[in-house]
Amino acid sequence: MKRRDGRYIFVAPAIxxxxxxxxxxxxxxxxxxxxxxxxxxxxxxxxxxxxxxFLLKDDRFWNAxxxxxxFTAVSVSLxxxxxxxxxxLLNRPFAAKGxxxxxxxxxxxxxxxxxxxxxxWIFNSDFGILNYLLGMxxxxxxxxxxxxxxxxxxxxxxxxxxxxxxxxxGLQVIPRELGQAARIDGAGAWGVFRHVTLxxxxxVILVALIxxxxxxxxxxxxxxxxxxxxxxxxxxxxxxxxxxxxFQTLQFGYGSxxxxxxxxxxxxxxxxxxxxxxxxxx
Amino acid sequence: xxxxxxxxxxxxxxxxxxxxxLWQLITSLKPDGELTALPPVFPERVTxxxxxxxxxxxxxxxxxxxxxxxxxxxxxxxxVIGSLAAFGLAKLNLRRKGVILGFVLSVSMFPxxxxxxxxYLVIRALGLRDTWWGLVLTYTTFSLPLSIWTLTGFxxxxxDEIYLAARxxxxxxxxxxxxxxxxxxxxxxxxxxxxxxxxxxNEFLFALTLTSTTASRTVPVAIALFPGLHxxxxxxxxxxxxxxxxxxxALVFLxxxxxxxxxxxxxxxx
Lengths: 282, 270
Hints:
The complex is a heterodimer of chains A (282) and B (270). Chain A has 282 residues and is mainly α. Chain A has 12 helices and 2 strands. Chain A has a two-stranded antiparallel ribbon with strand order 1-2. The longest helix of chain A has 32 residues, at 59-90. The longest helix of chain B has 36 residues, at 234-269. In chain B, helix 1 packs across helix 13 and helix 5 (97-108) packs across helix 7 (132-157). Chain B has a domain at 72-213: MetI-like fold. The chains are: A mainly alpha (282), B mainly alpha (270). Chains A and B meet through helix 1, helix 4, helix 5, helix 7 and helix 9 of A and helix 1, helix 4, helix 5, helix 6 and helix 7 of B.
């Protein structure tokens, strides 16, 4: 590096730390995924693509992949709809706006683990407030067809505020005159929303979609604490399955292969969205 | 009429957001006998026995101390390293600015599960497993994208003339950062610090993997692994949940405007 580039000293600590603690492990995980590695038995040998071939035949992997895709699709759609609704609501002028905004931020600030424990108690089939309010006796977390939906519900509650806050910021930069002009031209409330607000909001919606999709696809905390992946693996997502293989059965090689798949999926999703986003901006 | 409808919907939204937490608060104040009975929804006899029970355990203090220490040290380190980088990116005309910002952003998209196993091996090899420093190193790095992006935005908003004036007056770039830029951008720096602190206080996957005893176990891990021999102690869990969330709620209600600003800084302008 040339002498005058002493300027790069300022970014150097960050780059070094990021490289050592994120890039290096990211490369290491690819290498681990080509090995059979079990710490307790001191086994560590190169096995090529064996882990990946095993993975293709592993029903539990396909189940986890499907759960992850379903979880992501349903929870992100619900969050976007609810988030947009809340953003439109809060964008109007009203008293005590600061307090309401803070109240909406509460789920965002609560640790995911705490919120999962909260929902575990709410969903409790015998003493839960939800069954009491509904007057039903549904085994939310113990029934394989309900459990994933319960996890989705808990996730939607926790992450809708983030979407709402982001979209609200997007709404605030849309000049009010645009809506008023459309009104004068005879557009109804729906028409204004459909033809003025929504198109202008599109870039922010896409940014919220990117953040939320990537986050939902990596989901771990809420599922691990709420159901542990059960019952009968009906809520086991890729991250939860990979974690169990890594740290409960201690198969670092196969667990790494599963992690690499999560990595590749997340990479694929990012590229797709970035293409979409640059398409909109152009 | 329209107004009534508007405020009802607003109330519904607030109830939806705060209801579950309030239910946890109510649960924490109910005597054990009332926990397994509905109705009554509200406790007929308010008790603080669950709070007494969790605070009687010395472990609970230690775990809160772990979280507070790890989150505070992480916040300081992340802001210091992040400010240096953000200053370089915002004011020093680095030629590879776009590349560096893109690199930082793509790192933030790494799934934690993909790095947790190698990181576990590295931290173990360094002898940092089950220590505060193992977590601090991890959290500082993983929060860097957040602090760099927010701080770059805040620094870029300061007019170049202010920075150049400091340089003309004989400040080195580093002095200009410390004496001029940081004080001017103080509100933004504070915002970034809140976001990093909340991230570090709430993180679960790395904490679960890199800690194994009370020596370094943090709040989320303790709540997730709350001991229950035969039955789950719902009242104690509720009390612990309320206690560990109080600092976060205080931050949210005191600084909601700043938090919103920080969360949306990058997203709206692109």
